Amino acid sequence: MKMANQNQGDLREQVERLQEQNRLLEARVAEHEKLQQSCSNNLESMRTTLDALQGLLARCRADMVLQQQNHPTAAIGPEQQPRGKLQRANSTPAAMKSEIELLRAQLEVYKNDFAGERIARQVLQLEKNQLAGELQQLQQQNRTLIVEALNGSQADQQDVRSFSRRSSRMSQISDAIGEDDQHADHLQEGSHCRHCDRAFGDIQSLETHIDECPAY
């Protein structure tokens, strides 16, 4: 009984420890879900910005081509064009080219950031899957320990019933032994002469003695 109670107490402590580990893992899973949601939001925002930059870069390239078509400097030599008009024609494509280079650099930065965020999101997903697996394993261990604790409680009840049956059987045997002792005492009393207190081995000898007992 004492050993069974101790085992049941150990199982209860293991269940409590597993439940605490379950709570910690659930908190970590929830935290990873928040981080994953934040990464998803960042990826969506960066994707929108990236699309906008790509669209702006395409428009700048189209404008640059249009400017070159509207200002064909190759057909007319520099010495045949007015000085101010030549500077304005040359400055516009140069400025647009510089803007395109800047946009291209920004686009490259956003591409790198986008790739980094995507890798971070994949890492978070792997960690979340690992934590979910550990949580599922601990929950299974928790259920197993609960079943063992319930089975241990049923075994204790069976031990109590078995002990009760053994006690009842021992009581019956003790009563039977007491009755046998009383019967033996009664027989022993019947083998003594009440007048001279002489003992005899059997009833017949006692009856013969009674007829001849001097104290009778």
TrEMBL record:
Taxonomic superkingdom: Eukaryota
Q: Per UniProt, which keywords does this protein have?
A: Coiled coil
Entry-linked InterPro entries:
Optineurin/NFkB_EssMod
Coiled coil stretches, renumbered: 1-35, 121-148
* Disordered, as annotated region: 73-92
Q: What is this protein called?
A: CCHC NOA-type domain-containing protein
